[in-house]
Design brief:
The complex is a heterodimer of chains A (592) and B (259). By secondary structure, chain A is mostly helical. Chain A has 19 helices and 2 strands. In chain A, strands 1-2 form a two-stranded antiparallel sheet. In chain A, a hairpin with a 2-residue loop joins strand 1 and strand 2. Chain B folds into 2 domains: 79 residues, no CATH class; 151 residues, Immunoglobulin-like (Sandwich). Classes of the chains: A mainly alpha (592), B alpha+beta (259). At the A-B interface, helix 4, strand 1, helix 9, helix 11 and helix 12 of A face helix 1, helix 2, strand 7 and strand 9 of B.
């Protein structure tokens, strides 16, 4: 299908000229923009839910054994599948803590961040940035959302079903996961969520290959599109193994197979029934074969957003665009051969560990190149510090800390001490929380006028940024030290251990930083809603940006562009030399 | 003796091999610190110098930035040094150069939700037969007391008694789920995987009592799966081993210590 053909009136659920019904327009829409907004709103709600679970856990961590204030008794209600707190005292139970922990991870990764960065930003922005009227397969796109939402709802419902929510960590290691309550629902939900991502990934790849506007060659694609393109391949290739593994674990639970269950287990003093001689390590291999590429699914789109915002607000082209693109592709390839660095402590041989620590070191190089390119892009700019740019600039040092702290974890010998400690939690949260989530905030402030036709409030944006930045560091920096001192992760009560007692004070500080972080989101939530009605109205290109999404009206109508865009230049033609103008959009022909 | 521990950095190391772990952690963090500070200084300088202001315009000409290329190559080289110079040889030594069996004391450890069961072979050097069917609350590893080799065996729960200045090999296995055997002060960490028997070795340089911690989520009471390693002079250890023969029934004190 050529780009021109794609612009011909096509078989949409709402034929042009007829106003689509409410259901067709807002609920079962096939328009990539509506689906993108559906994904983003759902993802933001889950982001909030995942954060709330953690705020309850932080109470127990800061004040072990003290009743959870306000909702302590509520979390022991009978309508829950399993009590989270003690009925008499309102103290968080260990099983409640583990359930919240497992669900925090699952919600944040599979139900919040991935749907936000891929389903939300990807869906809304990619077709616009490549000058397409929609995704290549609009119905598949709708199906993708309608696998995600039931998957997310089922996962959330597990709190209310018999046995409660899954308790074995987001990694669901067998045999623990196979014998723990709540896991069946977790696995069913995961199958839905994985299917959703799989459908989405195929759509992104085909859309980017087939529906680019005339003149939009691959090397003229905005970096965000490249990031989504690589992400699409990661999802496509990494998710099927986990889907298979989830079904296998389900069989171990329900059908008595023993893919992951070795023979001769004695559980709570009783000989277990599994006799097939399965391998617990097989689950870990299958899980991490997905979950390591998944890390790059979380971070690459955020890098893409940050690259867009930085190019726009430095008013100059990105430095090293090509090396960034090649690095992203290389990152994608390498992410498939590093998975076992999550398993260094499983008794891995010297040769295998040498291989995986080497690949892990190698994968740091393209990350360093992308980060360096983004920082050097600041040089020579004329930097506007608006709300999206504040978050995008803050992303850089936060991601740098996240990346650097990966080094001692990647080296097997230093990993002996740091593996499965709070150091790990600090490390990957620096990548995903002040890293990816800052990218998400930057993206929301940046594309909000495109989605709604109105700007978000700048002052509220700055009031949102500064405390968020401080609290994020107040939360995750101390965790690195807690890990070095020797505190295991997933520890319900640190004071049980000598090392934990030494760092209990930090736990208190971290918890208060987390609760303050929640308060710091209030200006954002207010801003998000009041700007819908009272934000400053803007035309199609309020940021004076060059990429194609800004050539469409704000908000873009069904079919996106008034006239079919044609591309004449590179994505970031800011401050063209020898001109008095500040920027040249991609769709502006060279003037005589 | 309890060594003073920093609230911000590594716990004391009383093992013979741990210095290579600590050295790598320290060198890597210096390297990270230098990179972050240097890079951060450039970053902040750019933000200040190139801020938008009246009379300042962006200069779109690409800068050659040879420095960044050299910096990236430097980073790659240093990473290779950390990898090949430090991590790989130390890993091979720590994890795979086991001490001679006749010089070392070998202890079997069977983990369960939520305890560490240690099994010593006693004076005859042969472990008594174990059978999962014999497991009961008083016999956590299912030791067959009818086996003559069992007579001098010692079984302890959660307390690992070892002599100082002697290589120790611990054979790790699990009854139920994955645990992770971690003694921070001895720089020992190894996942304990059901269906597998995985050995670790270490040698203590000092006597004392320290935490053993489970580093892998293993269920509700994972956080309480704490053991103690009790490092004694060789003669005291020998006396202890003699007095603890399995013919004496397990004492409640062995099962649980004060938290």
């Amino acid at each position: 299908m050529s780009a021109a053909a794609a612009h011909a009136p096509h078989d949409h659920a709402s034929p042009h000229g007829h106003a689509p019904s409410f259901w067709r327009h807002y609920v079962f829409s096939v328009d990539h923009k509506v689906i993108g907004v559906q994904y983003a709103i759902t993802g933001l709600i889950f982001l909030f839910v995942g954060f709330c679970l953690m705020m309850v856990m932080r109470w127990q961590l800061a004040y072990p054994g003290q009743p959870v204030p306000l909702i302590g008794k509520l979390l022991a209600s009978d309508w829950l599948g399993a009590a989270i707190t003690d009925k008499q005292t309102g103290v968080l139970l260990p099983e409640g803590y583990n359930a919240f922990g497992a669900m925090h991870g699952t919600i944040m990764v599979f139900m919040a961040i991935v749907p936000l960065v891929v389903g939300g930003f990807g869906n809304f922005v990619v077709p616009l940035q490549i000058g397409a009227p929609d995704m290549a397969f609009p119905r598949l796109n709708m199906l993708s959302y309608w696998c995600y939402l039931p998957g997310g709802l089922l996962m959330s419902a597990s709190f209310f079903l018999p046995g409660g929510a899954a308790q074995s960590g987001w990694t669901s290691y067998a045999p623990l996961a196979v014998i723990s309550p709540g896991q069946t629902v977790w696995l069913f939900s995961m199958v839905l969520l994985i299917t959703s991502s799989l459908l989405g990934s195929i759509n992104f790849i085909v859309t980017i290959v087939q529906l680019r506007a005339r003149g939009l060659t691959f090397m003229r694609l905005p970096f965000f599109v490249w990031a989504q393109f690589v992400t699409g391949f990661l999802l496509l290739l990494a998710f099927p193994p986990l889907e298979a593994a989830a079904v296998m674990q389900l069989m171990d639970r329900l059908a008595g197979t023993s893919f992951f269950m070795p023979e001769g287990l004695v559980i709570s003093g009783k000989l277990a029934e599994w006799t097939g001689g399965g391998s617990p390590l097989l689950w870990q291999h299958l899980f991490w074969f997905l979950a390591h590429p998944e890390v790059y699914v979380l971070i690459l789109p955020a890098m893409g957003i940050v690259a867009e915002v930085i190019a726009n607000n430095t008013r100059k082209p990105l430095w090293g665009y090509r090396s960034m693109v090649y690095s992203a592709i290389f990152l994608g390839f390498m992410s498939f051969v590093v998975w076992a660095h999550h398993m260094f402590m499983t008794g891995m041989g010297t040769k295998l560990s040498a291989f995986f620590q080497t690949t892990t070191m190698i994968i740091s190089i393209p990350s360093v190149i992308i980060l360096t390119a983004l920082v050097i892009s600041l040089w020579g700019g004329s930097i506007r510090f608006n709300a999206p740019m504040l978050f995008a600039t803050a992303f850089l040092p936060m991601f740098a800390i996240g990346g650097l702290t990966g080094l001692p974890l990647a080296l097997t010998t230093s990993d002996i001490h740091l593996h499965d400690t709070y150091y790990v939690i600090g490390h990957f949260h620096y990548v995903v929380a002040p890293g990816t989530i800052f990218g998400i905030f930057a993206g929301i402030y940046y594309w909000y006028p495109k989605v709604t036709g109105r700007m978000m409030n700048e002052t509220l944006g700055k009031i949102h940024f500064w405390p968020t930045f401080l609290c994020m560091n107040g939360i995750f920096l101390p965790m690195l030290f807690q890990g070095l001192v020797g505190l295991s992760r997933r520890t319900y009560d640190a004071t049980v251990y000598e090392a934990g007692q030494l760092v209990q004070g930090m736990h208190v500080g971290i918890s208060w930083a987390a609760w303050t972080l929640a308060v710091a989101q209030i200006p954002f939530i207010i801003n998000f809603f009041i700007s819908l009605r009272s934000g400053r109205k803007v035309a199609e290109n309020p940021w004076e940006a060059t990429t194609l999404e800004w050539a469409a009206p704000s908000p873009p109508p069904h079919g996106n562009f008034v006239t079919e865009p044609v591309v004449y230049r590179d994505p970031y033609d800011y401050s063209p030399p020898g001109r008095s103008i500040d920027f040249l959009p991609q769709n502006k022909p060279q003037e005589a | 003796m309890l060594l003073a521990q920093s609230r911000f950095w590594l716990p004391p190391d009383i093992s013979t091999h741990g210095s290579s772990v600590d050295q790598l952690i320290n060198v890597t963090h210096w390297f990270m610190g230098v990179l972050f500070v240097g890079w951060g200084a450039f970053f902040v300088y750019c933000l200040v110098r190139f801020r938008a202001r009246p009379g300042h315009a962006a200069d779109p000409r690409p800068i050659p930035a040879k420095t960044s290329k050299y910096a990236e190559i430097g980073v790659a080289i240093f990473e290779a040094v950390l990898l090949i110079g430090f991590s790989m040889p130390a890993w091979a030594q720590v994890k795979y150069q086991f001490p001679a069996e006749d010089k070392a004391l070998t202890v079997r450890m069977t983990a369960e939700q939520f305890a560490w069961n240690f099994h010593y072979s006693g004076a005859d050097g042969v472990w008594g037969r174990t059978d999962p069917k014999l497991i009961d609350p008083g016999n956590p590893i299912g030791l067959d007391l009818a086996d003559p080799h069992s007579a001098d065996d010692v079984v302890t729960v959660n307390n690992l008694h070892i002599p100082v200045h002697q290589p120790i090999i611990v054979q790790l296995s699990s009854k139920d789920v994955i645990h992770s055997f971690w003694i921070p002060v001895l720089r020992v960490k190894q996942d304990v995987i059901p269906g597998m028997s995985i050995p670790v070795w270490f040698e203590a340089r000092e006597t004392g009592e320290y935490d053993i911690s489970c580093a892998q989520l293993c269920g509700n009471n994972h956080y309480k799966m704490r053991g103690r390693v009790m490092i004694k002079p060789a003669d005291e250890f020998a006396k202890w081993l003699e007095s603890e023969k399995v013919s004496r029934p397990l004492q409640p004190a062995d099962q649980e210590f004060e938290l």
